[in-house]
Amino acid sequence: MIEEKGILFVLSGPSGVGKGTVRRELFEQDNELKYSISMTTRDRREGETEGVDYFYKSREEFEQLIEDKQLLEYAQFVNNYYGTPRKYVEETLAAGHDVFLEIEVQGALQVKENFPEGVFIFLFPPSLEELKTRIVSRGTESQDLVLKRLREARNEIEMMDAYDYVVVNDRVESAVEKIQSIIQSEHCKRDRIAKQYKKLLEDEM
Ligand SMILES: Nc1ncnc2c1ncn2[C@@H]1O[C@H](COP(=O)(O)OP(=O)(O)OP(=O)(O)O)[C@@H](O)[C@H]1O
Ligand SMILES: Nc1nc2c(ncn2[C@@H]2O[C@H](COP(=O)(O)O)[C@@H](O)[C@H]2O)c(=O)[nH]1
Q1: Closest by alpha carbon to 133, among 146, 124, 144?
Q2: Does domain 1-33+98-205 have CATH number 3.40.50.300?
Q3: Which InterPro entries match (predicted)?
Q4: What is the value of ipTM here, to two decimals?
C-alpha cells in the first residue's frame, strides 16, 4: 500500500517581503492547507493573538522545548527564538494533510535536512528599496530593529539558491496565484510518481 502523506510547503524570504500577507491571502482561498503556528520569544505585536499568530514563550520555556526535542527546527532571528512544533507537523502530514510553514532561512535549511521531499519557496521583493519601504511602513519595529532585519535580509537572499522556487511578491494576488500553481503542480507530480510506483509493484507481482 502506498502511504498518502501530505506535502510540506516552506515559505521563506526576507523580513518585510510580505510572507505573512501572502500566506493569509493564500489561506483565504485554500482551505485544504494547514498552517503550522510557530513558537516565539518575541513580544506580541498589537493585533496579534496567542495561538493564531504565534505561541508566545519566555526564553526559559523555549529553551525547555529545545531540550525536550519538541521543535522540528528553530533559529535565533534578531534577538529572539522562533521554532516549529514537531508534533503538529508530523501528525498533520501523517494524516494526509499538506502543511505550510512560514519561517526564516536558517530554520528552512534545518527542515530541508529532515524533509528533503518538502517544497521550498523563496519570496523575493521587487527591489531592496521596496523591501525597506514595506518593513518601515508596517511600523511594527523600532528603527534599530528595522536595520537589523534589513541586514539579515541580505544574508537570507544569499541563500535563495537552496530553494526549489523563487516567487517575486510584486502584487499580492499574483504571488498567491504563483504559489497556488506550485502547490497544484507538486500534487500532480506526486500523483504521477505514485501511479508509476503502483504500476511497478503490480508488474512485479
Ligand atoms: N505585494 C505587496 N505590495 C505592497 N505591500 C505589500 C505587499 N505584500 C506585503 N506588503 C506590505 O508589506 C509589509 C510587510 O508585509 P508582511 O508583514 O506580510 O511581511 P513578512 O515577510 O511577513 O515580514 P516578517 O518576516 O517581518 O514577519 C506589510 O505592511 C504589508 O501590508
Ligand atoms: N526558523 C523559524 N523562523 C520563523 C518561525 N516563525 C516565524 N519565523 C520567521 O521569523 C522572522 C521574524 O518574524 P516576525 O513575526 O518577528 O516578523 C520571519 O522571517 C518569520 O518568517 C519559525 O517557527 N521558525
Answers
A1: 146
A2: yes
A3: GK/Ca_channel_bsu, Guanylate_kin-like_dom, Guanylate_kinase, Guanylate_kinase_CS, P-loop_NTPase
A4: 0.99
